[in-house]
Amino acid sequence: MKSIKLLATALVASCVLAPAWADSKNADIYGTVAFGLMSTENSAGVSNTEVLNESRIGFQGSKVLPKLGDTKFVWQIESGFMGPNGLSAQPYESGTLGTRDTWAGFEGGFGKVRVGRLLTPYGETLDWPFANGGVGPLVESTSVPGGGSYVRESDQFRWDSVATGPLTASVSFGRGTRSTSAGNAFVAANSSSLSGVVHYAVGGATLHAGYEKNGNRSANSGENTNLLLAAQSPSFGGFSLYGAYIKGTSTITSTTGSYTPGNYDRATNQFALQYATGDWISKISYAKNQDLSGPVADKGGDITAIQVLYIVDPSLVTYARYVSASNPNTTAGWWNKSRVLIGMEYGF
């Protein structure tokens, strides 16, 4: 870390336009080197193999401000990862600085207040661990037409509380004016999002409750809501469990694909069993969409994922994963496909 910090200091100090008061001593470089080889086979037995590159880098720092009662100024600038063949399939796959969590704020006895592009409290809680291990495409997907939750947003304010006994809480609000898709940012004109979660830790277990309300989540929708109830167990002889119940609702204002205007809702259930022994961690995850309720109904699908991870070093892990997604009512997207992924991640 010392050499990394010296490099960060040198980069900051080398900026020709850096003002005389620039703080070049409180900047760190961090990141992830992540590569994988993934083979996807559809229901017809046709396979496609590709190299995944989710490497990314970031800069972060903090500075105590004695004139503000020792409140800290905190900041972060993070790049996106590289898309297929180094191309930008989505803005957050461009490798450009600022496309992932990039924000500034203050931290003190009031908690932490930040503004910029960062994870929503709801999306952050859902992402780890409930969407991890291969079931993310279903758990984080738009489970109702014109609806779904955000993962991260630009143009956002977020507050994270300090711990009050076993309780912590986070709330964010954002508003956007984009009229075209921008990755995980706001995707419709005059869109807005209010997101909040509460965490309760007791006896080695953690309970989570989250709620998100979005306006104009898409160009053809009005208001949509997302509810999350989740829990993580303590470890019992290396075994642990976690699971989530997710409920999404939406209002369609004009026909979207095969969905006519009206109110829709759908629930999703996720469950995982994990076993850790020595440097090995094995996990089986399952997620299922219930049938859609609304003017146009459809059947839900399910995903089963098995993953084995080996800790080579505290900074390096390797893993193998098998994922199978089944939905007899559609062949679109990632449904009715199986995937095998072998990968590694090195954090610095």
Structure commentary:
With 348 residues, this protein is mostly beta strands. It has helices spanning 2-13, 121-130, 136-139, and strands at 28-42, 47-53, 56-65, 71-78, 102-108, 111-119, 152-160, 167-176, 191-202, 205-215, 221-232, 239-252, 262-277, 280-289, 302-313, 316-326, 337-347. The protein has a 16-stranded antiparallel β-barrel. Mean pLDDT is 86; it is low at 6-16.
Quick one: how many beta strands? 17
* Spatial order of strands in the largest sheet: 1-3-4-5-6-7-8-9-10-11-12-13-14-15-16-17
Helix content: under 10%
SSE succession: HEEEEEEHHEEEEEEEEEEE
Backbone structural class: mainly beta
Query: Termini, distance in Å?
Result: 8 Å
Largest sheet: 16 strands, antiparallel, barrel
Roughly what fraction of the amino acids lie in strands?
Answer: over 45%
Contiguous low-pLDDT stretches (5 residues minimum) are: 6-16
The helix count comes to 3
Net shape: globular
Task: Tell me the Rg in angstroms.
Answer: 21 Å
Mean pLDDT: 86
What does the secondary structure layout of this molecule look like, with pairings?
Elements: H1 2-13, E1 28-42, E2 47-53, E3 56-65, E4 71-78, E5 102-108, E6 111-119, H2 121-130, H3 136-139, E7 152-160, E8 167-176, E9 191-202, E10 205-215, E11 221-232, E12 239-252, E13 262-277, E14 280-289, E15 302-313, E16 316-326, E17 337-347
Antiparallel strand pairs: 1-2, 1-3, 1-17, 3-4, 4-5, 5-6, 6-7, 7-8, 8-9, 9-10, 10-11, 11-12, 12-13, 13-14, 14-15, 15-16, 16-17
